[in-house]
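Field notebook, page 317. I keep forgetting to write these up properly, so this time I am using the form the group agreed on. The chain and the ligand, glutamic acid, are recorded exactly as supplied. Prediction of the bound pose follows.
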Amino acid sequence: MPKPPDNPYDLSRFDLDDILGTINEEVRERFGQGEVADHIPDLAGVGKDRFGMALALLDGQVHEVGDSRHRFSIQSMSKVHTLTLALKAVGDELWQRVDREPSGDPFNSLIQLEHENGIPRNPFMNAGALVTADVILSNYDNPEAMLLKFLQERAGDPDIGEDEKLASSERESGYRNIALANFIRSFKNLHNDPDAVLDFYARQCSIGMHCVDLARSVQYLADSGCCPNSGEQVTSAGGAKRINAMMMTAGTYDAAGDFAFYVGLPAKSGVSGGIVAVVPHVMGLCVWYPGLDEKGNSKLGRYALHRFTEITDLSVF
Ligand code: GLU
C-alpha cells in the first residue's frame, strides 16, 4: 500500500491544472450522457456539450477548466447556503422542524411527510428546504437581498443575481413544490404564507453562478466555518462539520450512499447539473455538466469528481 503523504493538506505534490486537463478530456469524450431536467421549462434548453470544473483552494488559488465561467442556476446547491443561514438564525431549534436523516426517496417526494407529521427528513430535500426558507423569511429583513449579498460575499463576485424569468417559470410549473408547501403548512410546520415561501424558494434556486463562484461559495465549509474571501466566521467550526455531514448523507438526493462510495466528499447537487463539494481543510470545488442520471445528479459531473478523488486520493475516507 502506498505510504500516505506527511502533510495531506500540502497540494504541491500535484499538478492540478494537468489533472483538470485530463478530466476535461475524459468528460468531453463522453458528452451526451444523461438527461437534462425538464420539470422547469427554462432549464430544458441547455445542451449536453458543456462541462466546467473549478477548484478554490483555501490559500486563494483557483484552478479551472472548460466552461468554468458559464453561469447557470444554482438550484438545490442553494440549500447549503440557506441551511447555513437558517442555522445562524435559530441554531439547534431548526432540528425540531427538520430531521437530519437521509431519505432514500426522490428530492421532491411527499411520501414520508404524511407518516412523519410534516417534519421533512432533511434540509436538502425540497420539503426540508421549504422549511429552511420559512425560517429565513421569519428571521431576516429583506431575505432575497440578504441571500444574494451572502453569496456575493462568499464568492467575492458582486455580479451574482437572480434570474427573474427562471424563478417565475419554476413558480408557475412547480406543482409538487406547491403541494409540499401546503401540506407542510397543514402540519403547522410553515409559519409564513406558503406562497411567500414558494416565491423565496424559486428565487433562491434561480440565482446564477458559475463553477468558480460556487467553488468559492463553499470554502467556509472547508475552513472550519471561516470564509477565506471575506475573513468572516460564517458559521462555527461545529456548524461547518454538521453541514458537511448533511451534505455527505443527503446532498446528492437518494444516491448519497453511492456518491460517498465513489467520490467520498461532502457534496450538494442541483438539477441544473452543478455539484459543489468540499475537501475539508483544503478546498471548495464545483463541477457542471447539464445531463443528469436517473437520480437527478449530473452524470459526468459525478464522473469528474470520482476521477478527481481517484487521481488525487483527496477524499474524507
Ligand atoms: N428548483 C428545483 C426544484 O425544486 C430544485 C431541485 C434540485 O435542484 O434538486 O425542483
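OBSERVATIONS:
- The chain has one domain: 11-312.
- The pocket of glutamic acid is lined by residues 39, 75-76, 107-108, 126, 170, 177, 205, 270-271, 296 (CB under 6 Å).
FOLLOW-UP: compare against the apo run.
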